[in-house]
Each structure stands twice: as structure tokens, then as C-alpha cells.
Amino acid sequence: MRIEIPNALIDALRHAQHIAVLTGAGVSAESGVPTFRDAQTGLWSKFNPQELATRKAFQRNPKMVWEWYAYRRELTARAEPNAGHYALVEMEKRVPQFTLITQNIDGLHERAGTKNMIELHGNIQRVKCLREDVRVESWVEDGEIPPRCPRCNSYLRPDVVWFGEMLPAFALDEAFRAARNCDLFFSIGTSGVVEPAASLPFVALRNGAVVVEINPDETPLSRGATFRLCGAAGVVLPMILGAPF
Ligand code: BV8
After folding, report:
1. What's the CA-to-centroid distance between 121 and ligand 1, angstroms?
2. Separation of 15 CA from ligand 1 center, angstroms?
């Protein structure tokens, strides 16, 4: 299906002083990272990620949850940024102010070269102590799963935000500040159901920003967005960057 970039959007890009972007798992889909709500592939297909990505699941079965994250860590470490990630790196270079807010924990935006980035849900490549809630860079691999904190011997856990856990306060404040102050907001590759991230595009709308959704499927934002570009991030974003702005 042919996708057109509206002239009014190109005009908004030309005049934009501050672009804010919210990304979700859909931006990494073309890098081969399964989206959060796609049926989990292979041995994890019988689990619901929403039930596994919780502190309760980890306390109930630390070994299984640790191994789920180890599987995803390995998968994301092998993945490469795609054309959508690189188009956002180029967009950042073309505007006076650019804030990328990601729900993704795969680290692909940083690897692509995005500079001003907020990780709302943490990063799967990082590990922290379950009790101290402090990052741990290295630990003894003695075969025990999960491994233990070298300082206090509690279990280690992935440095991600689980359902029911608070988001990092500074990151959340910065994200809402960007949504309030930007003049152009992109919501890309997110189903828009996980709060508080899902509220960001609506805050931008209420503060008078032009809001653009890029997603092959409909979401709760689709009807309210100023522009809805129905397609894959890796296709639509390079088209936008190819426009004269
Ligand atoms: C919190 C890390 C305070 C772990 C994740 C208010 C209202 C209702 C519920 C709540 C609320 N406040 C809090 C809640 C509860 C909960 C929540 O929102 N539940 C939902 C499900 C109803 N929120 C929380 O618990 C948050 N904490 O608010 O703390 C608090 C505390 C206690 C009680 C109340 C409040 C913490 C949320 C963070 C959870 N951690 N990830 C991990 O990954 O293992 S969230 C997880 O979902 C991922 O980070 C993921 O990024 C995120 C969102 O999913 P999406 O990125 O949107 O991915 P999804 O698969 O859903 O969609 C992909 C989209 O891409 C689709 O639309 C698809 O069409 C599209 N797509 C596919 N291919 C492409 C594409 N688009 C473009 N191009 C393509 N090629």
C-alpha cells in the first residue's frame, strides 16, 4: 500500500523547534526483536510476558524469570538497529531540540547513535541487585541461577521496570516535560496500552503539539493523532527523512 507523507507534516517538520519521539517495541520488530504483544516465540510461547515481567513472578520463580531475560538479552545483543532507528538518528541532527523517549529495553536506539534518549523501562543489558536496587557490573558465575550480588549476596535481577513498579522518576519527569514543550510529537511502534508512557502523546496534543502516529495497526491514539501514517517504522521513517525539510 502506497504511503504519502502529507505536505502539512513536511511543513511542520520544517518549522519544528523541538521534536519529541515515543517509541515502542514495533520500532525493533524489523531488527528481529519480537514485539511485546506478539506471541512469544519458541519455548516462551506458553507464557504471557505481562505475567513474567513482574517482581512477583521473579520472587515465585527467580530461575525461570532470569532465564527468560537471559534469552531476550542474547536475542537483542545479536539484533542490529534498522532503517527506522537510523532515520531517527538523522532526524535528531536536523532539528534544534530532539528528545527520544523509548519504552524499549533493547538498547538499539543508543547503538544506532541517538544522543538525547530517555529509557523509561530500563535496559535489558544492565543488571542490578534485587535488594540494594543498585547496578552490578560484574559478578561470580558459579552456575547458580540467578547469580548473586557480590556485595550483599541477594539475587541479581534485570535492570528493567516490571509491571507494578515505579518508573525512574527523573526519566519520567523529563519525558513529560518534553511532551509538554515539544511542537511536534511522534508516537512510533507502540500499542499505547502501557501507562504512564501511553499518556505522553495525549499530553503533547493537549499542549498544542502536532502529533504523528506511525504504526501498521490502529491504537487508542489513532483517532486523536494529527497525522496517522499506517505502515512500518523502517519504511515510513526513511520516507519522512527523504522529504525536503
Ligand atoms: C507504574 C520492561 C506506578 C519489562 C515494560 C494506569 C492505567 C492502567 C494501568 C496502569 C496505570 N498505571 C499503572 C498501570 C499498570 C501497568 C500498565 O500500564 N498495565 C497495562 C498493561 C494496562 N503499568 C505499570 O505497571 C507501570 N508502572 O505505572 O507504576 C504504579 C505501580 C503500581 C500500581 C499502579 C501504578 C510499569 C510499566 C512498565 C512495564 N515494563 N517493559 C520487559 O520488557 O520485560 S512494558 C513493555 O510493554 C515493554 O517495555 C514494551 O515496550 C511496553 C509497551 O508495549 P509496546 O512497546 O507498545 O509493544 P507492543 O508489542 O504492545 O506493541 C507493538 C506495536 O508496534 C503494535 O501496535 C504493533 O502494531 C506495532 N508494530 C509492529 N511492527 C511494527 C510496528 N510499528 C511500526 N513498525 C513496525 N514494523
Report:
1. 9
2. 31
**Ligand 1 pocket: which of 163, 166, 187 to mutate (most atoms <8 Å of CB)?**
163
Q: Which atom of ligand 1 is nearest to the CA of 103?
A: 51
Above 80 in pLDDT, residue 43?
A: no
- The pLDDT tens digits of the residues spanning 47-68 come to 788 889 999 999 999 999 999 9
Q: How many CA atoms lie within 13 A of 71 on its CB side?
A: 13
Beta bridge partners of residue 97, listed in sequence order: 18
Q: How many CA atoms lie within 13 A of 239 on its CB side?
A: 16
Q: Whose alpha carbon is nearest atom 32 of ligand 1?
A: 164
User: What are φ and ψ of residue 55, in 5° steps?
Assistant: -65, -35
Confidence of residue 128 (pLDDT cuts 50, 70, 90): very high
* Each residue's pLDDT tens digit, 168-213: 999 999 999 999 999 999 999 999 999 999 999 999 999 999 999 9
Q: Cell 518549522, residue?
A: 15
Exactly one of 15, 85, 109, 121 is catalytic; name it.
121
DSSP assignment, residue 39?
A: P
- Residue 112 C-alpha to ligand 1 middle, in angstroms? 23
